[in-house]
Amino acid sequence: MTGWTRPHILNLADWSAAEFDIVLQTAASMAQVLAGRTKKIPALQGQVVTNLFFEPSTRTRSSFELAAKRLSADVMNFAPGSSSLTKGETILDTAKTYLAMGTDIMVIRHQQAGVPQFIAHQLDQLGAGVKVLNAGDGQHEHPSQALLDLYTITRQLDRDNPRLAVLQGKKIAIVGDILHSRVARSNIWSLLAAGADLHLAGPPTLLPLAFAQLRPVDSPGQLTLHWHLEPALVEADFVMTLRLQKERMTAHLLPSLREYHQQFGLTHARLQACHPSVKLLHPGPVNRGVEMSSELMDDANLSLIQDQVTSGVAIRMALLYLIGTAGPEA
Ligand code: NCD
Predict the structure, then answer these.
(1) DSSP label at 303?
(2) Where does the pLDDT of residue 249 fall: very low under 50, low under 70, confident under 90, or very high at 90 and above?
(3) Does ligand 1 have an atom closer than 6 angstroms to the CB of 284?
(4) Which of 106, 133, 195, 325 suits a disulfide with 220, CB 3.0-4.6 Å?
(5) What is the mean pLDDT of the segment spanning 12-19?
(6) What is the pLDDT of residues 256-314, one digit of tens each?
(7) How far is it, in rounded angstroms, from Cα 35 to Cα 225?
(8) How much distance in Å is there from the Cα of 101 to the middle of ligand 1?
(9) Looking at the 3D structure of the chain, how many domains does it have?
Protein backbone atom coordinates (compact mmCIF):
# COMPACT_ATOMS: atom_id res chain seq x y z
CA MET A 1 0.00 0.00 0.00
CA THR A 2 1.63 3.25 -1.10
CA GLY A 3 -1.23 5.66 -0.36
CA TRP A 4 -1.19 6.81 -4.00
CA THR A 5 -4.62 7.76 -5.42
CA ARG A 6 -4.15 9.69 -8.72
CA PRO A 7 -4.99 7.64 -11.82
CA HIS A 8 -3.23 10.11 -14.16
CA ILE A 9 -0.10 12.26 -13.83
CA LEU A 10 -0.82 15.36 -15.91
CA ASN A 11 0.75 18.27 -13.99
CA LEU A 12 2.38 19.11 -10.66
CA ALA A 13 0.49 22.35 -9.99
CA ASP A 14 -1.82 20.90 -7.34
CA TRP A 15 0.35 18.21 -5.75
CA SER A 16 0.58 17.89 -1.98
CA ALA A 17 3.91 17.57 -0.16
CA ALA A 18 2.92 13.98 0.73
CA GLU A 19 2.54 13.09 -2.96
CA PHE A 20 6.02 14.40 -3.80
CA ASP A 21 7.45 12.37 -0.92
CA ILE A 22 5.70 9.15 -2.04
CA VAL A 23 7.29 9.56 -5.49
CA LEU A 24 10.76 10.28 -4.03
CA GLN A 25 10.59 7.24 -1.71
CA THR A 26 9.29 4.96 -4.45
CA ALA A 27 12.05 6.16 -6.81
CA ALA A 28 14.66 5.40 -4.12
CA SER A 29 13.32 1.81 -3.94
CA MET A 30 13.41 1.57 -7.74
CA ALA A 31 17.02 2.82 -7.74
CA GLN A 32 17.83 -0.13 -5.44
CA VAL A 33 16.20 -2.49 -7.93
CA LEU A 34 18.33 -0.97 -10.72
CA ALA A 35 21.48 -1.35 -8.61
CA GLY A 36 20.70 -5.02 -7.92
CA ARG A 37 21.69 -8.08 -9.90
CA THR A 38 18.48 -8.72 -11.88
CA LYS A 39 17.51 -5.02 -12.33
CA LYS A 40 13.89 -5.99 -12.91
CA ILE A 41 10.70 -6.59 -10.91
CA PRO A 42 7.43 -8.19 -12.08
CA ALA A 43 5.23 -5.28 -10.79
CA LEU A 44 3.55 -4.52 -14.14
CA GLN A 45 3.76 -7.98 -15.70
CA GLY A 46 1.01 -8.36 -18.32
CA GLN A 47 0.31 -4.61 -18.48
CA VAL A 48 0.82 -2.71 -21.72
CA VAL A 49 2.56 0.68 -21.68
CA THR A 50 2.24 2.71 -24.89
CA ASN A 51 4.52 5.65 -25.61
CA LEU A 52 2.62 8.13 -27.78
CA PHE A 53 5.23 10.74 -28.69
CA PHE A 54 3.88 13.25 -31.20
CA GLU A 55 7.02 15.40 -30.74
CA PRO A 56 10.72 14.41 -30.98
CA SER A 57 12.47 13.08 -27.89
CA THR A 58 15.66 11.21 -27.08
CA ARG A 59 15.95 10.78 -23.34
CA THR A 60 12.34 11.01 -22.19
CA ARG A 61 11.02 8.36 -24.60
CA SER A 62 13.92 5.95 -24.07
CA SER A 63 13.74 6.48 -20.33
CA PHE A 64 10.02 5.65 -20.19
CA GLU A 65 10.62 2.60 -22.39
CA LEU A 66 13.39 1.25 -20.20
CA ALA A 67 11.43 2.04 -17.01
CA ALA A 68 8.40 0.10 -18.29
CA LYS A 69 10.61 -2.86 -19.28
CA ARG A 70 12.31 -2.90 -15.85
CA LEU A 71 8.80 -3.26 -14.38
CA SER A 72 8.17 -6.19 -16.76
CA ALA A 73 5.45 -4.39 -18.77
CA ASP A 74 5.04 -4.86 -22.53
CA VAL A 75 5.90 -1.65 -24.39
CA MET A 76 4.66 -0.17 -27.66
CA ASN A 77 6.15 2.93 -29.26
CA PHE A 78 4.31 5.28 -31.57
CA ALA A 79 6.19 7.62 -33.94
CA PRO A 80 4.05 10.16 -35.86
CA GLY A 81 6.19 10.30 -38.99
CA SER A 82 5.49 6.69 -39.98
CA SER A 83 1.91 6.49 -38.61
CA SER A 84 -1.65 6.94 -39.91
CA LEU A 85 -1.58 10.51 -38.58
CA THR A 86 -0.01 11.31 -41.94
CA LYS A 87 -3.25 9.93 -43.46
CA GLY A 88 -5.42 12.29 -41.40
CA GLU A 89 -6.27 10.18 -38.33
CA THR A 90 -7.04 12.30 -35.22
CA ILE A 91 -4.94 11.94 -32.08
CA LEU A 92 -7.96 10.64 -30.19
CA ASP A 93 -8.50 7.93 -32.81
CA THR A 94 -4.82 7.03 -32.52
CA ALA A 95 -5.25 6.73 -28.74
CA LYS A 96 -8.38 4.59 -29.20
CA THR A 97 -6.48 2.28 -31.57
CA TYR A 98 -3.90 1.62 -28.85
CA LEU A 99 -6.70 1.24 -26.31
CA ALA A 100 -8.24 -1.49 -28.46
CA MET A 101 -4.91 -3.37 -28.33
CA GLY A 102 -5.14 -3.46 -24.55
CA THR A 103 -3.06 -0.47 -23.46
CA ASP A 104 -3.12 0.07 -19.68
CA ILE A 105 -0.89 3.14 -19.46
CA MET A 106 -0.41 5.84 -22.13
CA VAL A 107 2.64 8.08 -21.93
CA ILE A 108 1.87 11.12 -24.08
CA ARG A 109 4.05 13.94 -25.44
CA HIS A 110 2.56 16.58 -27.73
CA GLN A 111 3.61 20.01 -28.98
CA GLN A 112 0.20 21.38 -27.99
CA ALA A 113 -0.50 22.15 -24.33
CA GLY A 114 -3.47 20.20 -22.94
CA VAL A 115 -3.38 17.13 -25.22
CA PRO A 116 -2.60 14.56 -22.46
CA GLN A 117 -5.42 16.07 -20.31
CA PHE A 118 -7.79 15.91 -23.28
CA ILE A 119 -7.03 12.27 -24.02
CA ALA A 120 -7.23 11.31 -20.32
CA HIS A 121 -10.64 12.99 -20.06
CA GLN A 122 -11.98 11.35 -23.22
CA LEU A 123 -10.76 7.90 -22.16
CA ASP A 124 -12.27 8.38 -18.68
CA GLN A 125 -15.61 9.16 -20.32
CA LEU A 126 -15.38 5.88 -22.20
CA GLY A 127 -14.73 4.11 -18.89
CA ALA A 128 -11.52 2.74 -20.38
CA GLY A 129 -9.61 2.58 -17.07
CA VAL A 130 -6.47 3.69 -18.94
CA LYS A 131 -3.92 5.74 -16.97
CA VAL A 132 -2.31 8.73 -18.71
CA LEU A 133 1.11 10.19 -18.01
CA ASN A 134 2.09 13.57 -19.45
CA ALA A 135 5.60 13.36 -20.95
CA GLY A 136 5.61 17.06 -21.93
CA ASP A 137 2.79 19.12 -23.48
CA GLY A 138 3.65 22.33 -25.33
CA GLN A 139 4.79 25.02 -22.93
CA HIS A 140 2.56 23.68 -20.14
CA GLU A 141 4.17 20.98 -17.97
CA HIS A 142 6.70 18.15 -17.96
CA PRO A 143 6.03 16.44 -14.62
CA SER A 144 8.42 13.49 -14.92
CA GLN A 145 11.33 15.83 -15.77
CA ALA A 146 10.70 18.07 -12.74
CA LEU A 147 10.33 14.98 -10.53
CA LEU A 148 13.65 13.56 -11.72
CA ASP A 149 15.22 16.97 -11.08
CA LEU A 150 13.71 16.96 -7.59
CA TYR A 151 15.00 13.44 -6.96
CA THR A 152 18.50 14.35 -8.26
CA ILE A 153 18.67 17.45 -6.05
CA THR A 154 17.24 15.90 -2.88
CA ARG A 155 19.61 12.92 -3.23
CA GLN A 156 22.55 15.32 -3.31
CA LEU A 157 21.42 16.58 0.08
CA ASP A 158 20.54 13.20 1.63
CA ARG A 159 21.56 10.23 -0.49
CA ASP A 160 19.80 7.59 1.62
CA ASN A 161 16.57 9.43 2.28
CA PRO A 162 15.61 11.87 -0.51
CA ARG A 163 12.61 13.90 0.68
CA LEU A 164 11.01 17.29 0.14
CA ALA A 165 12.04 18.73 3.52
CA VAL A 166 15.78 18.76 2.71
CA LEU A 167 15.17 21.59 0.20
CA GLN A 168 13.74 23.98 2.80
CA GLY A 169 15.47 27.37 2.33
CA LYS A 170 17.97 26.11 -0.29
CA LYS A 171 18.69 28.66 -3.01
CA ILE A 172 17.95 27.32 -6.48
CA ALA A 173 18.35 29.35 -9.67
CA ILE A 174 16.60 28.52 -12.95
CA VAL A 175 18.24 30.37 -15.83
CA GLY A 176 17.38 30.97 -19.47
CA ASP A 177 14.41 30.45 -21.76
CA ILE A 178 11.78 30.20 -19.06
CA LEU A 179 8.96 31.50 -21.28
CA HIS A 180 9.00 28.47 -23.59
CA SER A 181 9.89 25.90 -20.95
CA ARG A 182 7.45 23.33 -19.61
CA VAL A 183 10.38 22.00 -17.55
CA ALA A 184 10.69 25.36 -15.74
CA ARG A 185 6.95 25.53 -15.09
CA SER A 186 6.81 22.04 -13.54
CA ASN A 187 9.94 22.77 -11.51
CA ILE A 188 8.42 25.98 -10.17
CA TRP A 189 5.53 23.97 -8.68
CA SER A 190 7.68 21.27 -7.10
CA LEU A 191 10.49 23.50 -5.80
CA LEU A 192 8.11 26.02 -4.23
CA ALA A 193 6.13 23.18 -2.65
CA ALA A 194 9.46 22.03 -1.17
CA GLY A 195 10.02 25.44 0.46
CA ALA A 196 13.03 26.34 -1.70
CA ASP A 197 14.25 29.90 -2.21
CA LEU A 198 13.67 29.92 -5.98
CA HIS A 199 15.24 32.51 -8.33
CA LEU A 200 14.36 32.78 -12.02
CA ALA A 201 16.74 34.62 -14.34
CA GLY A 202 16.53 35.41 -18.05
CA PRO A 203 16.22 38.26 -20.53
CA PRO A 204 12.87 40.09 -20.20
CA THR A 205 11.72 38.66 -23.55
CA LEU A 206 12.13 35.12 -22.18
CA LEU A 207 11.08 35.80 -18.58
CA PRO A 208 7.83 37.79 -18.51
CA LEU A 209 6.80 39.46 -15.26
CA ALA A 210 3.69 37.23 -15.18
CA PHE A 211 5.90 34.43 -13.82
CA ALA A 212 5.96 36.25 -10.45
CA GLN A 213 2.30 35.23 -10.08
CA LEU A 214 2.95 31.50 -10.47
CA ARG A 215 2.62 30.09 -6.98
CA PRO A 216 0.99 26.98 -5.59
CA VAL A 217 -1.65 27.76 -2.95
CA ASP A 218 -0.05 28.00 0.54
CA SER A 219 3.38 27.15 -0.84
CA PRO A 220 6.20 27.64 1.67
CA GLY A 221 8.78 28.63 -0.99
CA GLN A 222 9.92 32.10 -2.12
CA LEU A 223 9.96 33.14 -5.79
CA THR A 224 12.15 36.00 -7.11
CA LEU A 225 12.63 37.13 -10.73
CA HIS A 226 15.86 38.63 -12.15
CA TRP A 227 16.61 40.08 -15.58
CA HIS A 228 20.36 39.81 -14.91
CA LEU A 229 22.21 36.61 -14.12
CA GLU A 230 24.49 37.64 -11.24
CA PRO A 231 21.97 38.16 -8.39
CA ALA A 232 20.38 34.79 -9.14
CA LEU A 233 23.76 33.04 -8.80
CA VAL A 234 24.96 34.61 -5.51
CA GLU A 235 25.25 31.80 -2.92
CA ALA A 236 23.05 29.47 -5.03
CA ASP A 237 23.11 25.80 -3.98
CA PHE A 238 21.82 24.56 -7.35
CA VAL A 239 21.68 26.20 -10.78
CA MET A 240 19.48 24.79 -13.51
CA THR A 241 19.86 26.16 -17.00
CA LEU A 242 17.46 25.55 -19.88
CA ARG A 243 17.80 25.03 -23.60
CA LEU A 244 16.95 27.99 -25.81
CA GLN A 245 13.90 26.54 -27.55
CA LYS A 246 14.47 27.95 -31.00
CA GLU A 247 11.62 25.85 -32.45
CA ARG A 248 9.13 27.58 -30.15
CA MET A 249 10.31 31.14 -30.80
CA THR A 250 7.84 32.85 -33.07
CA ALA A 251 9.28 36.38 -32.77
CA HIS A 252 12.89 37.55 -32.69
CA LEU A 253 13.25 37.48 -28.93
CA LEU A 254 17.04 37.52 -28.83
CA PRO A 255 19.71 39.71 -30.44
CA SER A 256 22.15 36.81 -31.09
CA LEU A 257 23.24 33.55 -29.51
CA ARG A 258 26.66 35.05 -28.82
CA GLU A 259 25.16 37.95 -26.93
CA TYR A 260 22.85 35.59 -25.04
CA HIS A 261 25.83 33.50 -23.96
CA GLN A 262 27.66 36.63 -22.81
CA GLN A 263 24.73 37.67 -20.65
CA PHE A 264 23.20 34.40 -19.45
CA GLY A 265 25.58 31.58 -20.44
CA LEU A 266 27.07 29.71 -17.48
CA THR A 267 30.83 29.38 -17.18
CA HIS A 268 33.25 28.29 -14.45
CA ALA A 269 34.04 31.97 -13.74
CA ARG A 270 30.38 32.89 -13.28
CA LEU A 271 29.72 30.00 -10.91
CA GLN A 272 32.34 31.46 -8.53
CA ALA A 273 29.53 33.60 -7.10
CA CYS A 274 27.57 30.50 -6.04
CA HIS A 275 27.83 28.46 -2.84
CA PRO A 276 31.11 26.46 -2.87
CA SER A 277 29.22 23.16 -3.15
CA VAL A 278 27.04 24.36 -6.06
CA LYS A 279 25.81 21.79 -8.59
CA LEU A 280 24.55 22.37 -12.10
CA LEU A 281 21.51 20.83 -13.83
CA HIS A 282 20.18 20.92 -17.39
CA PRO A 283 17.24 18.81 -18.67
CA GLY A 284 18.94 18.32 -22.05
CA PRO A 285 19.34 18.53 -24.94
CA VAL A 286 22.10 21.14 -24.44
CA ASN A 287 23.20 23.77 -26.97
CA ARG A 288 26.91 23.63 -26.09
CA GLY A 289 28.44 27.09 -25.79
CA VAL A 290 25.02 28.79 -25.55
CA GLU A 291 23.38 27.93 -22.21
CA MET A 292 26.72 26.89 -20.76
CA SER A 293 30.33 26.51 -21.80
CA SER A 294 31.37 23.14 -23.14
CA GLU A 295 34.00 22.81 -20.35
CA LEU A 296 31.38 23.34 -17.67
CA MET A 297 29.04 20.78 -19.17
CA ASP A 298 31.79 18.16 -19.06
CA ASP A 299 32.95 19.00 -15.53
CA ALA A 300 31.84 15.96 -13.53
CA ASN A 301 32.52 17.77 -10.22
CA LEU A 302 29.90 20.38 -10.99
CA SER A 303 27.50 18.92 -13.50
CA LEU A 304 24.62 16.62 -12.50
CA ILE A 305 23.46 16.21 -16.10
CA GLN A 306 24.36 12.50 -16.35
CA ASP A 307 22.89 11.91 -12.87
CA GLN A 308 19.63 13.45 -14.07
CA VAL A 309 19.45 10.98 -16.95
CA THR A 310 20.17 8.03 -14.63
CA SER A 311 17.62 9.26 -12.07
CA GLY A 312 15.06 9.56 -14.86
CA VAL A 313 14.70 5.80 -15.15
CA ALA A 314 14.08 5.33 -11.40
CA ILE A 315 11.58 8.20 -11.32
CA ARG A 316 9.67 6.91 -14.34
CA MET A 317 9.60 3.40 -12.87
CA ALA A 318 8.13 4.96 -9.72
CA LEU A 319 5.47 6.87 -11.67
CA LEU A 320 4.46 3.89 -13.83
CA TYR A 321 4.39 1.68 -10.74
CA LEU A 322 2.28 4.12 -8.70
CA ILE A 323 -0.39 4.71 -11.35
CA GLY A 324 -0.20 1.13 -12.64
CA THR A 325 -0.93 -0.43 -9.26
CA ALA A 326 -3.29 2.23 -7.80
CA GLY A 327 -7.07 2.36 -8.00
CA PRO A 328 -9.89 -0.14 -8.52
CA GLU A 329 -8.31 -1.79 -11.58
CA ALA A 330 -5.24 -2.91 -9.61
C1 NCD B 1 12.91 19.05 -22.46
C2 NCD B 1 11.58 18.95 -23.15
O3 NCD B 1 11.43 18.27 -24.14
O4 NCD B 1 10.69 19.58 -22.63
N5 NCD B 1 13.77 18.00 -22.63
C6 NCD B 1 13.56 16.82 -21.97
O7 NCD B 1 12.47 16.31 -21.90
N8 NCD B 1 14.63 16.26 -21.37
C9 NCD B 1 13.54 20.35 -22.62
C10 NCD B 1 13.90 20.82 -23.99
O11 NCD B 1 13.40 20.36 -25.02
O12 NCD B 1 14.71 21.76 -24.04
Answers:
(1) B
(2) confident
(3) yes
(4) 195
(5) 96
(6) 889 999 999 999 999 999 999 999 999 999 999 999 999 999 999 999 999 999 999 99
(7) 40
(8) 29
(9) 2
Same-domain pairing of 106 and 192: no
Q: Side chain identity at 212, as an amino acid letter? A: A
Residues 150 and 196 placed together within one structural domain of the fold:
yes
Distance between CA atoms of 313 and 125, rounded to whole angstroms?
31
- pLDDT of 89 higher than 80: no
Instruction: Provide the residue range defining the domain that includes 178.
Output: 145-309
Handedness of CA 249, 251, 253, 256 (dihedral sign): positive
**pLDDT (mean) for 156-180:** 97
How confident is the model at residue 1, as a pLDDT? Answer: 56
Residue 125: which CATH number?
Answer: 3.40.50.1370
Centroid of ligand 1 to alpha carbon of 283 (angstroms): 6
Cβ–ligand 1 distance for 283 under 6 Å, the answer yes
Say if residue 261 is in the same domain as residue 222.
yes
The reply to whether ligand 1 has any atom less than 6 angstroms from the CB of 240 is no
